[in-house]
Write a structure and sequence with these properties.
Elements (H helix, E strand, L loop, with lengths): L4 H13 L4 E10 L9 E5 L4 E3 L7 H14 L3 E6 L4 H5 L6 E8 L2
Antiparallel strand pairs: 1-2, 1-5, 2-3, 4-5
């Protein structure tokens, strides 16, 4: 079962209020057969726990890794994945399509 945006944002707020470092990843652009629509969210805490989805499992691992860096550095990142990129095979988006995900620190 997918979490709703309200669940994801409530979780992000709760984690941040508890003192955890938190990042939120948002799908900002898609091309072709990207599995999640623009506006889909994934929230990640400093321990790598996450809720939500930006790609139906294709690139979540890579997004979590990058989110941990964003939490540590405080610098937002725009991540792009697709079959035209070398990251497609590493991150698993080889089913087709492309996706851009913006990751920013909460708080």
């Amino acid at each position: 079962m997918l979490s709703t945006d309200d669940d994801i944002l409530t979780t992000a707020e709760a984690w941040a209020k508890s003192g955890k470092g938190v990042a939120i990843a948002t799908v900002v652009e898609t091309w072709g057969s990207a599995p999640r629509p623009i506006g889909s969210h994934l929230v990640i805490d400093e321990e790598g726990t996450f809720l939500g989805s930006v790609s139906g499992g294709c690139v979540e691992g890579e997004v979590v890794t990058e989110a941990l860096d964003v939490i540590g550095s405080g610098k937002a990142k725009l991540l792009e994945f697709g079959v035209a990129d070398e990251t497609a095979w590493r991150a698993g988006l080889s089913c087709g399509g492309r996706i851009a995900v913006y990751v920013e620190k909460v708080g």
